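Service request form, structural biology core

Requester: graduate student, group of Dr. S.
Request type: structure prediction, single chain
Budget code: on file
Notes: please return the result as structure tokens.

Sequence provided:
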Amino acid sequence: MIFSLFSSMAVFLYVGAVSMYYAQNELATFVEIAHAYAFMFGLSILLLVHYTIHLKSTQELLKLIDSGVFEYDTKYGEEEDNKFRKTMEFYNSIFKNVFRIAIWVAYTILVIFAPLLVSFTGEGNNQRLNEITYNLPVPLWMPFDMNTTLGYSLGYSLVCFNIGLIILYLSASIPFIVFVAFEVNIQYGILKRSILGLEHRALEKYIGYCGLTEPQKETLRDDPIFVRCVQDSMKENILHHLEIVRLFDMYQDVTSSIFGVAIGVSMTILASLTIVLTKVNLLSVEALKFSFMYLVEVMVVFGYCLMGTFLTSGSQQIETALYNCPWYNLHESQKKIFRIFQFRSSSSIELKGSGLFLINLQLFVQILQTTYSIFNIFSSMDGGN
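Core staff response, request fulfilled:
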């Protein structure tokens, strides 16, 4: 499948480049081709980087998740943790199913309804550029005669096949990216409850060591065995936190280039679509098509930014949990360790694109403000002319 994907993408990168050359003086056609070309070019770069650089990191990330990020020695809160995990896995499965349905619906619209709409509106028969075939899922130039039934069938099949391979790859890769993000958040939720139940976990350890049935925590403050149990429980929390950070660092190493290229391409496409929307009749079918493309790109960027905020807010819960746990009952030596842990956890994790910019909802707002400014500038220019 990978060889077929790389081969078909190489062919269509060439076809797309020639198509953009022919459409350089036709803005709407050029932007529509450039939209698909930018997506294809970005995906080809990401695939190349993944299979040459990040393949081993991805395998290590999967092994870490399969083996379990961290296991506590105590059973306290295990039932609540399992409920929380099942709830998050349920949300993840909903996303996975909805995403796969949506992406295949988009494929159906693109390969069936889009060419039919072009033919129905007459755009396919009254082509603005003779070199470009408009009644394809994406208007393209082909290196053979597209005016014959055989030529059109071959070109249409090649485009559909290429889009289908990309859809298959996305339907596997995007759910994996979201799955790991959910796993990071699950681990932070488990760590949060574990910190809040620090004394309960220490008491469970104490009972296991001493064999007592119902000791009172208040009478054990100065018991050296209980103090050691508290220290061991705190050590588990610190180790768990370190494992979560290691998990996120591996995740960031694998996905940083993905987010960087994906959001960079989406920002460029949004700017281009905004300019096109100022040039076309807003009541035309063409405006409807470009508006739909714009909304899809906005939803994609929103999903990435929401994921970044989701991860950051999950990590910020740890500092709050440390503040709310009964730290005042700890011995002075343990309080020093506790303060160091609190200082380390105060630095929340942040999802970054290619290590250059933060991915969160603030970035999404900035992108919308930028595209709105572009729309106003070009609309005023056209109004002035």
